[in-house]
Design brief:
Blueprint lengths: L28 E6 L20 H4 L4 E5 L5 E3 H4 L6 E2 L5 E8 L5 E8 L14 E6 L8 E4 L9 E6 L5 E5 L12 E2 L10 E6 L4 E7 L4 E6 L5 E7 L5 H7 L7 E3 L24 H4 L11 E7 L7 E2 L40 E5 L7 E5 L10 E6 L11 E4 L22 E7 L5 E6 L21 E7 L5 E6 L5 E7 L4 E7 L1 E7 L15 H9 L4 H10 L2 E6 L16 E2 L5 E2 L7 E2 L2 E13 L11 E7 L16 E3 L6 E6 L4 E6 L5 E4 L11 E4 L21 H12 L4
Parallel strand pairs: 4-27, 11-35, 30-40, 31-33
Antiparallel strand pairs: 1-2, 1-29, 2-3, 5-6, 6-7, 7-8, 9-10, 10-12, 12-13, 14-15, 15-17, 16-34, 17-18, 19-20, 20-21, 21-22, 23-24, 24-25, 25-26, 27-28, 30-37, 31-32, 34-35, 34-36, 34-38, 38-39
Length: 723
Amino acid sequence: MNIQYKKIIVALSLALGSPLGSAAITNPVLFVTQVPIPQDFCTMNATFCNHRAAIDISGRGGDLWIRYPDGSLKNLTAAAGFGQTGLQGANAIQVRDPAVSWNGKKAVFSMVVGAPTAQYQVKQFYWQLYEITGLGKNQVPVITKVPNQPANYNNVSPTYGTDGRIIFVSDRPRNGQALLYPQLDEYEEAPTNTGLWSLAPKTGNLKLLNHAPSGDFNPFVDSFGRVIFTQWDHLQQDQQAAGDRNNTGNYGTFNYASETSSTILNSRAEIFPEPLKFDTVSLAGTNLTGHSFNHFFPWQINQDGTELETVNHVGRHELGGSYVDPVFTDDPVLTYLTASSFKPTKINNFFQIKQDPTNPNYYVGIDAPEFGTHASGQIVRLKNGAPSHNADTMTIDYITDPTTKSTTSDGQTPSPAHSGLYRDPLVLADGSMISAHSFDTYQDRNLGTTANPQSRYDYRIRTLKQLPNGKWAADQPLTNGIQKNISYYNPDTLVTYTGDLWELQPVEVKARPIPARLVSTLAAPEASVFLEEGVSESAFRQYLRSKNLALAIMRNVTVRDDDDKQQPFNLRVPTGTETLTPTGKIYDVAHFQVFQGDQIRGLKGCCSATPLPGRRVLAQKLHSVNANPPNPNAPKGSVKIAADGSVAMLLPTRRALSWQLTDPQGNFVVRERNWLSFQPGEIRTCPACHGVNNKNQVNANGPTNKPEALRQLLQYLKSINAI
């Protein structure tokens, strides 16, 4: 443990990017306490698979607390009649994810109620959404369950929309089909949430905003009206199936016949994207390097679920801390993307994002390892995150020392610069900053026993102060420590814990201006095509809504962002447009092919003939939409790329999708590396296949042509009397 930083007694004012001032905390701070759980895989503070309420991974005995400016504390859940001390039973609770309303007078949070009342008693528990009022020091708090939320599913990370709706994360199946529960992630095939949801509590109107095959985390509405969140992007082939194929594992992977079927096929085939690098069986005889993809990055979406993309279209080239291989082995102009490329400060992940209220252009978060630290690590700041900024101008500032990004190896002495591990950073309205913090710098593990667990970590909410080297470190705790005597059945063992609880997830209790609601609008080139073809945009959107369809438009798919040299970038449409650099192989692109995320991958495990619960998403050729113009002798689920390089295609909604460009023979040339989803009635325009941030591969601006493919689609739909 790095003891020296326990002696720091200086207050912080962190007006991130502004001069530093007072560290006084002028508004109440809401936070949660939780019993420490040392293990860090699929537990409630892990990087992923953190949404379940099972007793062994979430514990019991935590509470919702408020700390007032005078330093006094109130246990809000206890004052409202929830929770208990000692042996946790039917009235036991655990609490997480508080978020304050726009007027600062109430909060929404997640809570699980109940625990096994006897050893070996197995019960199913779920996180559900609750609201609390009466946050004032002299008020009596009242807690009510949010009505009409998905029952018998885990609903976590709620936040208030601007229209009375609650936006949250849930593991409810994408379409409510119980056969698909739980969704399994694309990495370890562990249970994951299904994405972002939106609920109108009074009416029960429920919408899936974003279908995420590996999960979404910690959404909030920023001052610009965008929903900002962390998405786990892991669009790669199944590593368990690759292990089975290469005899390096025994996972029992297989495919189901369809999402609606329980029929098991004698197949584990995958068709998108390319195989993993270690899958030598699948790569044999190809010109493919092998593909891996993994990061937790900042995303944005409108509150109605439209316009999903990474924040300002930022990506690996601007932020990513890992390398990316060139896709083909026989094209020497394709290059590696390395961590040192382009910008000196990089991040691997961006967890627990919050906007700086003193400078809305800045967003703070945590870059942390995926395992061993409960998603705690280095506090970082994303600059130029306002919608007006181009992704090429976005940069990362290291707030705490770079050593805090990782852990100290067991048996090694911590670096003197390592001030501990941080999570849940929060810039307050007065410019000061607080964070949950642990002084220990090693990976967490149980230093005790199953019956008497002891974590290495001592998370307390602390202010920060600036060090002589310009970095920031933990300073004063906001409390004197909150102790509790807790025991619960896990369910096989009676777990007992006495001591300080973890303090996590602080939020400031104050009123904030309600931002204007964002509405998607059609860009001028596309609007001109609608006008020239005599098609009403509003009527067309209504047609899309009636069919649960969206329209994706790309103006010129031969154009690529200038930084993306890992995939082919000398592209031409046969007998049509081309965007070519002076050197390198030229690739013809003729078809735009879409893949939909179907939950058809199952597991039996090493030693069972019975499938395990849940299914992983696999990319399948688009088969749920047949309204596009015919494209004979072309890849299934594709449309023809127009001579001007444009694409217009009707797509299914509220389901993860990805796509690729193929040559005339149907061989892939360029692939999308993320999953995206659309809303009924959405018309989404992208200037290019990999949208141009600043300049394209020939140092020109993004395309502004009126897409000929859109004109052809509208003419086709009119010819069959669809519109």
